[in-house]
Amino acid sequence: MKIRIILRLFLLLLLLFSPNWTFSQVQKTYTIADISVEGNTFSDPHTIISLSGLNRGDVITFPYDAKLQKAIKNLWNRKQFSDVQILVDKISENIIFLTIKIKEYPRVSDITIKNNKKISKEDLMKVINKNRGDIISKYEVYQIEQRIKRKYKEEGLPFAIVKAKLNPTDKPDYFELEIEIDEGFKYKVKSITFVGNQNLREDDLKEAFKETKTKHWWQFWRSAKFEPDKYKEDKELLLNYARNNGFIDFEILGDTIIYDDNEKVVNIKIFVNEGKKYFIRNIYFLGNTVFPNEALLRRLDISKGEPFNQEKLQQNLNGNKENTDAMSLYFDNGYLFARSEIQEIRVEPDSLDLYIRVYEGNRVTIRKVEIVGNTKTKDKVIRRELYTYPGDYFNRSAIIKSVRALGLLNYFNPETLRPDVKMVDNTKVDIVYQVEERSTDTFNASIGFAGSFGLTGAIGFSFNNFSLLEPLKGGGGQLFNFNLEFGQANRYRTISLGFTEPWLFDEPTTLGFNLYDTRIIYNPIDLRRTGFGINIGRRLRWPDDYFRVDGGIRIQRNNVGSGYSSYYRPGISTEFTISESISRISLDNIFFPTSGSRFTWSNDLALGAVGIGTTDFFKTQLRFEINQTVMKINELPRVVLNVTSNWGYITGLKTDTSINPIELFFMGGTGLSSGFPVTPLRGYPDQSIGPRAGGKVLARHFAELRFAVSLDPMPIYFYGFLEAGNVWSSLDRTDPFNLKRSAGVGVQIFLQALGIIGFSYGYGFDKTDDTGQISGWRFLFHIGQ
């Protein structure tokens, strides 16, 4: 030790008193003769030397060498040491002896958590992320405090006080990690009042808040929990609300939050200054040469004299959901680089002139369109759904429509279905559609028991991305299905085979066929029907390309048993039916649509009245569905409102008409045990609504609030529903306000091998038509709905 100190002093004096010293003059080359380690308790000295990167025999320069600096850095990066030094032990001629002196971080001997009641120790240990024997630093102790505070904020306790410290123990270099918690209260918002608002109603200002709200006893869906961070965000929403109503100078002067620890509530008072309300006087577009002012103003949809609305201005100028904004004129016609700047000029006393300068930029064409990630689906199947083509001008709306069309195929994971625009130069781009395949083929082999048919079974498959030319590989976008179902003692049996080509001769024309044979003995029905159908359809371009029209011909032989003549005419009949439907589908996803709508109007006409076949009827059905995103989580739509309405009507064309029972309307439950189409109505038993023998008028309406838990690899969503429906025997007995009502919850799951299955638990509020009793609670199992 004395030798080391003397050596250090000698070198220091040499540097200080040498009159013309330079750094390069005191540098000297040495060979490392030996390396020792000091201060280590837990770490092996050989390991420390190895981690440093220094070795015996290395040549270094003294007093400075990059190898020494790197060695210190290597040890620091291990995050095991609070101090690292490399010292000279001694120098002898051209050799040097080094000592690595370290100070190790302490280790955790035990973890003690005090006063935690709202969050379990197990959950807190996951947040702490430390175990006995782990290394711990003072900074990590601070990080643990912050993580626990965040956890309490997530649990609605934002005022929790967390103190973490290291307590020494009898064992050297081991410390106890002690965490003491004062959880505080969950405060609720009792009142929100505003001071200074003269034109904006207090109730409207309160509604501008998203999370900070009061709660009345009947508002069971609302939370009144007070969270300071969310309150801060809500104040920004308040400013936006005021500015979107013309008060562009609106400001929050201050606020007072009074905490009542006895009632565990807060009373909030917010002081505001509204300023003047501004109105639009004139709007000018500058710099636009491609599109005239009139076209841009129509898209902007802001009239002179209306209150200034910042949000409306931005959306109608730069981008709205419908792509009807002003700049979409440019983005949909090749002007990828087009942009705009808004200048607001105040005109006394309360008006604004808007000057919107447009920078049009170059017109860009699509060089090529690439598809990446399709391991099964053929490129041709994907490309025929796209609206972007090489050589076309860049079109933002066409890209959005292309992604929507690919989502409707249901072959790909919707969460990863994203387009990528890659610049080639300032006049060309490449568009890449990244897809991730998922199987939509389903197989079914089951056995069960149904009260109507006893022991039942089923076997079948549905290939939804089939290829007739490569049946084992698939990927051709065709549909091929087979199904066999049966009940005990031959009371129910059905077999069907179908095939559909959605793009005949590479045109958007659908051609398909279906063969079937069904036998049903289910009071009051004894029916066998055998037939085949041919369907053809085509996608339209007018009124827009979401429309399509379909038509078909069905030839069927019906045999109604004589034991049920009181309901249906017994004997054999032939049915020759022509059908047509017009539909518009703008959904973004089949299983869990988050936007768009679906409209279908279908009509069937059996031609017995004109001498073709012996059965005559006219049947019309109308369905309308709309979807609206309610909430996004991590920028993805996860909560969606679905509203659907169904109507149906069937009538004979002659006075002595006897309609095939399978064409009539039945309602209730899921319809799985009846063997023929039954309109579901959750909360009620199967076929318990309407006339026992079937009705001629149907109405069903429901609303579902859906929450997507996962969309890949196994799509799952939960929902709550309100539903109402009924079936009537004739049009003159129809009362659209006399509906059977129900409400409940459920879950839908898409299993790749089985398709869509679901469970619901609903309460039927009204009496069933078959028993006359209140339906009450019903648990139902769904397939394919």
Structural write-up:
The protein has 785 residues and is α+β, with helices and mostly antiparallel strands. Among the domains are: 2-104, membrane protein fhac (Ubiquitin-like (UB roll), Roll), CATH 3.10.20; 107-182, Ubiquitin-like (UB roll), CATH 3.10.20.310; 188-273, membrane protein fhac (Ubiquitin-like (UB roll), Roll), CATH 3.10.20; 279-359, membrane protein fhac (Ubiquitin-like (UB roll), Roll), CATH 3.10.20.310; 366-434, membrane protein fhac (Ubiquitin-like (UB roll), Roll), CATH 3.10.20.310; 669-700 and 714-722 and 738-785, no CATH class. 16% of the residues lie in helices and 44% in strands. The longest helix has 17 residues, at 138-154. The radius of gyration is 38 Å and the shape is globular. The relative contact order is 0.04. Residues 1-25 have low confidence and may be disordered.
Which helices and strands, and how do they pair?
Layout: H1 2-17, H2 23-26, E1 28-38, H3 45-52, E2 59-62, H4 66-76, E3 81-92, E4 95-104, E5 107-114, H5 121-128, H6 138-154, E6 161-168, E7 174-182, E8 188-195, H7 202-207, H8 228-243, E9 251-260, E10 265-273, E11 279-286, H9 293-300, H10 310-318, H11 328-331, E12 339-347, E13 351-359, E14 365-372, H12 379-383, H13 396-409, E15 418-425, E16 428-434, E17 442-450, E18 454-466, E19 478-487, E20 492-501, E21 509-522, E22 525-539, E23 547-560, E24 571-585, E25 595-607, E26 616-633, E27 636-651, E28 697-710, E29 716-728, E30 740-751, E31 755-767, E32 774-783
Parallel strand pairs: 1-4, 5-7, 8-10, 11-13, 14-16
Antiparallel strand pairs: 1-2, 3-4, 6-7, 9-10, 12-13, 15-16, 17-18, 18-19, 19-20, 20-21, 21-22, 22-23, 23-24, 24-25, 25-26, 26-27, 27-28, 28-29, 29-30, 30-31, 31-32
